[in-house]
Fold these 2 entries.
Entry 1:
Amino acid sequence: MKMTRRLILAGVAMVLAAGAASAQQVIRMGTEGAYPPFNYINDAGELAGFEIDLGNELCERAGLTCEWVINDWDTIIPNLVSGNYDTIMAGMSITEARAEVIAFTRNYKFSDPSGYMALAGTDASVIETGVIAAQSNTVQAGLVADGSATLIEFPTPDETISAVRNGEADAVLADSEFLTPFVDESDGELVFIGGEVTPGQGIGMGLRQSDTELRTTFDEAIAGMREDGSLNALLKQWFGEEVPTF
Amino acid sequence: MFSFCVDPSILPQWQWFACYLTSGTHLAFYWAFLVVLALILLAAPAALLFGFGGALAARSRVPPVRWLGVGYISMVRGIPDIIFFLFVPIAMDQGIEYLVHHVRCPDWTEPIRQGTDFIVCPQAKVPLNDAARWVHDAYAFVLAVVAFAIVFGAFAANTLYGAMSAVPRAQIETGEAYGMTPRQTFRRILLPQMWIYALPGLSNLWMILIKATPLLFLLGIRDVVFWARELGGAKTAQFYAYPHPDWRVWYFLALLVVYLLVTWASEKVFERIMTRLNTGQATAGGERLRRTKAAA
């Protein structure tokens, strides 16, 4: 009993002491960690990807100390507004629906063309009449839901690919960048069907609407990286030479 | 991990697997098993404590205390777990930050709620933004333990409440005949005897608790099921050193075996406790024990 009381006291003391010592602000950056090449956990168990490199560079330019936080995609916006972290960099397209809840910086990447990937031999008419898989709460899911095809949603990108492989869905709609490696490495089993579509207004960093100061800081850092070409270099490094640049 | 792991693409199969299964992500996967185990071992006694408090409150002769106990039990039991797990940690986190905010930043003029945003002063963040990563992880873990304890405590409370009522009245009456106060009969007669009636229900709860641990990911803790899904998913050679097709079925199979082993072991333990508690009891189980002993 005495032991527990002492532990509780020590805990309270620690919390208070930590508060007094707080001097420099740390910006916590939320990401999904499951969407290469934007952000993923590499074999060493560390975060890697275009947005990790970009985020670190932006923080350095803005003179901020940043720390990455991995969060599930489906709760990534609620946890931002509740203050568990301060930014989202997770390949998130700027859409009007999202802009009602959170604020976005200017885009650091143009909208990705999205593509339909299906098993070889699938007719392109499934885009209008078939079953299309998409990750839930994405622009692609919104696009399919507005169209005539049947939408099935999955919480992770991986599962959308599996759904196509096992026949649960006729095709998957996702960023072409994300799908291309699967097509390339499938030995002709998976192919793109139909043309590409471009939903969204580019990809940007999400912040709380009340965080206007932080938003200005990151907007300026992104503008700086656009101007001196370092953003283009990063884009080419992660997405290849054909990626649309600023 | 091993010296030959520098370029996995040229390795023979067994070495490839040796490297693959000791990669950084796999070590995190193994660590997650310990986290889940720690959660179960901490949440179970905490839930029992909540349950005991709830059962006592529900039995109280003071109406407000009784209403509190009954309210807790029926509310938590009636709300889907998943809603509770999403609600409790966020509500607790915001509640704590709200209180700390008022203590540390009395001069703060901006509203805490701005539209959907929840904003407290930087000094009131729990844990602070610049706290070490393990502090954030530990905080999330503690919130998870409390959330599990509240939910499973309500079920345990109902079980214990039933067990307390199941102890034969004659036993307590005998105590009273010896001149014991209600407090004494509770401690000396009711409490030691009620466990035999509570155990089947409690062992059920323990099993459900073990199986409920995948809900941890909702609370931002990367648990074994998250890693199984993440590691098992198809990996392309462009970004990963160990490309492989969709292996989730193997990872989930391994999880299935682990979970079965844990529940099987707990069943054995519960059997032993049951035998022990039954010994010398005036119950059918106790009588059976007495006869087998007499026959031997």
Entry 2:
Amino acid sequence: MDPGMKTTRRRIAALLLGLAAGLGAVVADAQERFITMASTTSTEQSGLFPHLLPAFRKASGIDVRVVAVGTGQALDIGRRGDADVLFVHDQAAEEKFVAEGFGVRRMPVMYNDFVIVGPQTDPAGARGKDVVAALRKIAASKSAFVSRGDKSGTHAAELRYWKAAGIEAPEAKDAARPFDYKACGCGMGPALNIGSSSDAYVLTDRGTWLNFKNRGNLAILVEGDTRLFNQYGVIVVNPARHPQVKSALAQAFADWVVSAEGQSTIAAYKVGGHQLFFPDANR
Amino acid sequence: MLSTLLRLSDASVQLGKVTALQHVSLSVRRGEFIALVGANGSGKTTLLRLLHGLIDGNGARRVGEPAPVQAMVFQRPFMLNLTVWNNLRLALWLARARVPRAEAPARALEALQRVGLVESRDRPARVLSGGEQQRFALARAWAVRPDLLLLDEPTANLDPSAKKEVEALLLGFAAEGITLVMSTHNLGQAKRLATRVVYLDRGEVRLDLPTAQFFGPSADERARLFLKGELPWTLE
Amino acid sequence: MNEFAQSARSALDLIVHADATLVRTVTLSLVVSGTACLFAAGFGLLGGAWLAVARFPGLRAALLLLNTLLALPSVVVGLVVYLLLSRSGPLGSWGILFTPTAMVIAQTILVVPVVAALARQVVADGLRDGGDPLRSLGAGPLLAALLMLLHERWAVVTILLTAFGRAIAEVGAVMIVGGNIEGVTRVMTTTIALETSKGDLPLALALGLVLLAVVGLLNIAIGLVQRSRYASVVVHPR
């Protein structure tokens, strides 16, 4: 055989071995103890997980892999059985999820709150402690309001506040409500980006806001209204629907996060000295 | 040792809308050196491709038993982006049914020696000069020990000295017993090398004569008219 | 302009300090896209070569389909692969959703049409001159096509680089089938998307520059190999 051919064959063999090793490593991780958790982008961006999940890993040896998407998509992932546990903040949707048999049980875990941010000059006069009054004032003004419009938990909450303010469809054009309602169909960060570049009002969770760096002229104008509190629930995905769900490990997570240890870990998480999440599993 | 290697009987070839060949009857006999002459577009290349089996002849093509081993040298030699040696080894591998693996390196060396390209064996084939490339193509063809060698204007793009080298090789092959069919637009070359001349015009064989008859004083009336320059290209 | 200058400086900073997370993210990008390109090379080069010489009634339609697939949006590929690999889907038992393996599969599917279409063109062009000679030497159609790829191997390298560029730059497919899980399936492009959505635009831009720098280095390396191969060759004018 030509010496050239020998070297080529050796090179090909080495390449194939390397590939096999690489793929083997990837497949091997399937043997590790881990669960997949579907949660929301706003929760991930609050920075809670790098604080909370290592503590759980230490306590249980179980790794938690977080897929962070919108609430709607998170619930869909759960319905498909592609996640083992859900950690979202839309109580109505969560209860429906369990009622339809996709989840074993819903347990409350903690709450954080929403705030309304807007231009510091506050042209609509929304500043205060009342979210419903603030929305009415914004609607009556010439200002802009940016909505996520993406069926997320935040979006669902926003629509509830509009309804409470007597406005069924904020996007509808109405002479009595000259404000500019922009629905972007996007996450909290992009919505805030649009808000900051157009000096608009935005309903946001405090966590994303505290981590948000592109603030422009925006500042917190409305906070403290109890209606702005955002309740989180944890649901183990039902193994009866999808036998591959790692329900035992998922249950371990759910049990830990509502336990004294889990709850105190949640309370200990602070951003810029502010506590972001308030544990309430024992409500 | 059969005497007729290939026979075409009333062959016609359509290439798209054009009739490239019509009513062509031709027998190729062992030991002949046939020159195909004619203007560009007269069908010489198509006839060669038909003889080689690259085109379908609708049953008009009959091959002698056992089938003669054929090789073809094209006007522009095609070589892969490899060294001269590897190109030759590849060609021998492609012909592995006829060339046993163990023999291949020896055959390759022999072929390069035959055409005088041994010092170039490790050079990339693409850097050879035009004449060297054509000699390589001849080496590649000769290495499989063909019964029949087809050539499409092999010296058309070569300078005079390269042309001389190639012609010498072709005569050498003929002396070894290889049958050759070569198209050329160079009548002098046809006279120098061929035993038989076939004249093609617009896809048809107009004349098919032994060389002496084609060029000689006792030449055929039609041959004389043809040679007198009724055609738009000159004697060389 | 100031933002770009700032980002360029950050990019340099990031590269120099080579923070562990960044290195891991870059490595994962390279491994996922590189592996996908290797698989796509296997399927695409063979498929493209075959299409250049195949003769069957639906060939025209197949080529039309191939050219249409060049415009496959990455997010659509991601969606289709997700539905296949989901535990609710036909291949759920494989259990590879939200893993790098799924990302490799998605990117391979995305990039195979690119390799196949370009390889087909290279082979078809080459066979115009080389088809008859190769046939004359005894090569069957598929073998002639593959020899043509060997002949035009630097064109093939360019094709694979193009495919690699498409793979490493896409975000739609890997986001959906990978889930952008920190430390597991987070690659450069999904990190950039994440930082953008968090509003940290300078960091996102800087990461983009880092990604370009890495791919640029790869291209320089390949260029050096190419030049060293050709250094000793003087080409005679034809």
